[in-house]
Amino acid sequence: MKLFGTATVALFALLAIGNAVAADEHKEDEEGASRNKRQQNEVPVGDRKPYSEKQAEAQLQRTLDKLTAGEGPHYKIVKVYSATRQVISGTLTRIDADLIDGNEEQHRCIVEIWAQPWLDRGHEITFKCRNQPIVLARHSRSVEWAEKKTGHKKHNHHSLDKVEHLFHKFQIKFERRYVNSVERQMRLRIFRQNLRIIEQLNANEMGSAKYGITEFADMTSTEYKERTGLWQRTEGQPTGGQKAVVPSYPGGELPKEFDWRQKGAVSSVKNQGSCGSCWAFSTIGNIEGLNAVKTGQLKEFSEQELLDCDTKDSACNGGLPDNAYKAIQEIGGLEYESEYPYKARKEQCHFNKTLAHVQVTGFVDLPKNNETAMQEWLIANGPISIGINANAMQFYRGGVSHPWKILCEKSNLDHGVLIVGYGVSDYPNFHKTLPYWIVKNSWGPRWGEQGYYRVYRGDNTCGVSEMASSAILA
Ligand SMILES: *[C@@H]1O[C@H](CO)[C@@H](O)[C@H](O)[C@H]1NC(C)=O
Ligand SMILES: *[C@@H]1O[C@H](CO)[C@@H](O)[C@H](O)[C@H]1NC(C)=O
Fold first, then answer.
1. Domain containing 246 — which CATH number?
2. pTM of the shown model
3. For ligand 1, atom 12, which residue shows the shortest CA distance?
4. Catalytic residue check, 350
């Protein structure tokens, strides 16, 4: 499938970046190690030695990137004046530089980076900027480093099996049993690759999201895509939907936050399982919401009915909300979830017309690339079905996700989900304000933020506004 191709390319690009960075880091660690040895042999420990500005700047840049990926602080380099290195229970690099802080203000700073390669604590960084309070920060050790150490079992007994240890914990937490040691080895290899991807997602994150080990951490990207299942719309072809009428907000200015969950229009998080039926969950979520707004009663409707009876879509092999709205109209309505429960596989259609509790008469397409219109429509009507690029979701652990555009192209929608609200996160310490959408996913409540994803709002991140739609209820 076309969408697989592009997603894979994106992941390869990601791996390539990962490897480049990893190689760079190895180099630095090795250089650092041999320099330490040299210094320990040749000069008394504690002596400060000049350090090239170019190398210092590169090291500082890597450090700042890692901090930005974490909780900050955020600085940009303007100029490095000089740097020294010193061995005191690790390597202490002192860099004299002009930096720009998160307020876009420039300061002359001494940055001290204290690396203790044999400890598991990562690097300690101190920013001493003129007329500013001292800022302390820390970033954790890289996965590559741990892996490298795994190759030197004799020398370092502790971190040697960091990857193995993480994998073991992962197996327990997610109850993974592999048929034999060959499969386990293969899964461990995939897991290790995924740890690299996780590190790169964290390093390049522009929002506040954290990426880490999830239940998908032993899956290849192809296997992961089987948990999504959104087809792409045929380009240039009309969807069959009506243009959504977007009412302007009566109060003038839109509220800062809005959440349909607090108004009883969102059912609990469901789990599509190992079945590419996201499209059904996205569609049903929208209808549950509209129905609750209309009737004042939150009822759950049947995804399985769509898997079995919607011949326009392909059950666990994917589908499109556009098709599902039309199919519901033709089938003659939806049964409740309890009457037609979810099986995560296609079965014989056994729809019973006397149990149809909601009718669909058509659907609307929301304008693309206008997230203000989406806010207005959401408030006036209910939760919105959207397509999204799920690249950043495989390892999402929480926070406002704002990945690099190239890692999450808007053209590559592969997952159907539901927008149920929006809000704004303030990070005053890091001078960051992050507007976000609240997205209901269908991977169970253990994934993400109790089953939800917060994605950056305002620049069509991961294509959130590309395929927004909603049913029209009778
Ligand atoms: C359809 O549902 C009604 C109401 O529960 C029931 O009486 C009827 O037997 C069902 N029909 C079939 C074919 O199962
Ligand atoms: C977005 O939609 C709103 C509401 O329909 C409209 O007022 C506004 O002009 C649109 N903005 C753009 C850039 O199209």
1. 3.90.70.10
2. 0.71
3. 352
4. no
